[in-house]
Amino acid sequence: MKVAVRINLLILLTIILMPSEAFSNQKTLHFNDTIDKYSIYDYTYYYEDTSKNVTIDSILDSHYNFNSTEDQRLNFGFTENPFWIKFSIKNPTQKKKTLYLILANPDLNFIDFYETSDDSVIKSVHTGQARDFEARDIKNRNFVFELPLKPNKTHTFYLRSQNNGDANFLPLFLYNFSTYLHIDSNLLWFKGIIFGLCLFMILYNLFLFIKINQRIYLYYFFYLIFGTIILLLLNGFASQYLWNANLWRAANSIPVFMLLGLFFLLLFSKNFLSVRKFNQKIRFIFDLLLYFTFILGVLSIHKDFFIYGVYGLSILTPIIFIFCLFLSVKRIRQNEKPAFYLFGAFSLTIIGFLIHISRDAGFLPPNHITLNALSVGFIGEMFVLSLAVIDRFQREQKRIQNQLIKAKEKAQESDRLKSTFLANMDHEIRTPMNSIIGFTELLERIKVDDQKKDQYTTIIKNQGRHLINLINDVLDLAKIEAGILNMHSHHFTLNNLLHEIYIKTKHNLEEENADIELYAHYGLEGRDSIIIADKARLRQIINNLLSNAVKFTEMGMINFGYKKYNARTLLF
Q1: Can you list the alpha helix ranges (DSSP code H) found in 334-372?
Q2: Which tens digits make up the pLDDT trace of 369-415?
């Protein structure tokens, strides 16, 4: 009897003194001085708060059924329900130790961290993107929590996460202090280089827009602005440095900036790929994507429509990049080599997006590669697109240079023709002037009969008119070169104009006793020959052509006129 009582007392004492993890299914992580980085997922457990009313006090007072997260990887998808995370760490050493828990997802709205001991809270931190940055335990772009570990004691920690409908993904890392500082400093160097490149590309494209004044560089400038802000948001720097006091902007601005960034990317792609050259169906789809993206981006600014922006962004992003990739392939098949840049840029973004989605879906583990895949893909896209912009700038400079060379050659040819024209004008002007002066002197020196006088007077008058025509030609040439020659179009009958020119030219030929026959040809009859044109300029052109024809024809015939080519064209 006494033996049985002693055995029962021994069993009871063993149960009382046995730690809770001995009869619990939950595992406890043991601190080890030789380990710098711990894999915490094997020791974490989660509980979904479907009622959204569970508090830390009710967690400690009640026995909630926490589930293992070994396969879940703390990725709960798009949900508004809060999730509770629980893990325990034992410090078996005789000294106080400290570890650092890093939650490497800055895009979480509400994070509550609790350190407990003997079913009571001894420390709590309430932070998140929707809360003031100063409330963070450690001022960092990520959520970093200090875990003090007392000697020979097991510590239980709780983490509550809620993300208002966005992806509730908790990539947790556990480091000692030196490892945390080393990894964080290396990441800061890497991200500093990335944002330095972004700033350079922004300023470079602003310079290109100011220098060339083409809208495509303005579109890409705004895309880089929004893209850089998105990177700042995804990496937590925006909450830390830009708007740590504006809680709504810090928590809900990612869909707004992403949609507006996509809007300017579509404008850039539309210009770069010359979408106007595609068929009407493709142009309609492209414009539809533009309108939807812009409208969703503007609506997402208002908190009541924010959730529509989130879902719209999830749907539009793959559609836009796949559609632009499709158009790039079509341009490449049309031997448009610059389209290779867009194909490479969109491919990088799609790869980064697929890695990001695969990580969120649990197919890939959360590590520094998968956590930064979207940012790296985005940076790669911006870099390749910048190469496309530089290539376009160089091609534009080459085109302008070729235009300048052609303009120079044209100016030199114009100068040569002008010199030849003025040389001919020297002879053309001297001839009528000599005639006018010569016959005027004859009339002054000698007495002539009325018949001779009329003949000389007619010659002087005709040469004077010829001289006026020459002067008008010189003045018109000067106006053409200065770009100030005005045209005055109106209705007139073409046949009447040709008949007037025919009568005048025929009369001049008879006065000069030229052995030349003149024939006029009319392609239309009567009122059908009414046209809209500058009558004076057309008369001038035909007169000059006939004048040259008479000048270089000693005998024979001259034919002039027009014929109908089609309903809107006449051939002279």
Answers
A1: 339-360, 368-371
A2: 777 787 788 778 878 887 887 887 788 788 888 888 888 888 788 77
Domain boundaries, the chain: 24-175, 205-405, 488-572
For residue 171, CA distances in Å to 85, 107, 130, 259, 500 come to 12, 12, 19, 26, 94
Per the CB < 8 A criterion, the answer to whether 501 and 542 are in contact is yes
What DSSP state is assigned to residue 114? E
Residues making up the chain, counted from first to last: 572
pLDDT digits (tens, 9 = 90+) for 504-528: 888 777 777 777 888 888 888 877 7
| Residues 6+ away with beta carbon under 8 Å from 156 | 86, 87, 88, 116, 117
Type of residue found at 118: D
Question: Any long-range contacts for 286-290 (C-beta under 8 Å, 24+ apart)?
Answer: 286/323, 286/327, 289/316, 289/319, 289/320, 289/323, 290/263, 290/266
Q: What is the 3-state secondary structure (H, E, C) of 506-527?
A: HHHHHHCCCEEEEEEECCCCHH
| 533 touches 570 (CB < 8 A) | no
Tokens 């601190």 correspond to: 31
What is the CA angle 420-426-427, rounded to 5? 100
Does the reported pTM lie above 0.85? no
Q: Which CATH fold topology does 488-572 show? A: Heat Shock Protein 90 (3.30.565)
Residue 489 contacts residue 532 (beta carbons within 8 Å): yes
Q: Whose structure tokens read 């020659």? A: 485
**CATH 2.60.40.2380 correct for 24-175:** yes
Distance CA 300, CA 305 (A): 5
Q: For residue 94, what is the enclosing H or E element?
A: none
What is the C-alpha to C-alpha distance for residues 508 and 510, in angstroms, rounded to an integer?
A: 5
> Over 90: is that where the pLDDT of 113 sits?
yes
Tabulate helix, strand, coil % of the chain (nearest 5): 60, 20, 20
The percent of residues above 90 in pLDDT, for the chain, comes to 6
Question: Cα–Cα distance between 74 and 35 in angstroms, integer?
Answer: 23
The DSSP bridge partners found for residue 564 are 570
